[in-house]
Amino acid sequence: MTEASIFTRILQGDIPAEIVAETDRVFVIRDINPKAPVHLLAIPKTGEYRDVTELAAGDPGLLAELVEVASDAAARFSDGDFRLVFNTGAGAGQTVFHVHAHVLAGGLSEASLGG
Ligand code: 5GP
What digits encode the pLDDT tens for the residues 54-108? Predict the structure, then answer.
């Protein structure tokens, strides 16, 4: 059996974190090391998908729900505009292999990607 991810342990209450939004299949917490004025993590409750490519292939409906929950959270905690980041693979900075979306919001217009 694979070890429970840090997010599963948070969901189970083994590691403290405030769940700021929740549906039957998705929950949202604040990132412990925020990289933006609003930095949330939207996470499927199931830990069976390591990254967004696995989630998209295995349960596209759950991916759509994750995006909807992320959008709702961005509207609640900021002005509704947000950046959604899925680090995918260690080389891209992924450290927790339980798929999660970084929801970055609040004063990001100056910090555009590229350009
Ligand atoms: P990744 O690097 O895998 O894309 O993102 C993992 C994120 O989880 C990081 O931004 C990190 O700060 C966050 N994180 C790691 N451990 C904890 C924790 O115990 N509590 C919370 N709230 N966030 C965590």
Answer: 999 999 999 999 999 999 999 999 999 999 999 999 999 999 999 999 999 998 8
Domains of the chain plus CATH, in order, are 6-105 (3.30.428.10)
Is there a catalytic annotation at residue 100?
yes
pTM above 0.90, yes or no: yes
Question: What b/e string do you get for 80-103 counting C-beta neighbours within 10 Å, with b at 16 or more?
Answer: eebbbbbbeeeeeebeebbbbbbb
Q: For 14-81, where are the alpha helices, taking DSSP H only? A: 52-58, 60-77
CB of residue 94 inside a 6 A radius of ligand 1: yes
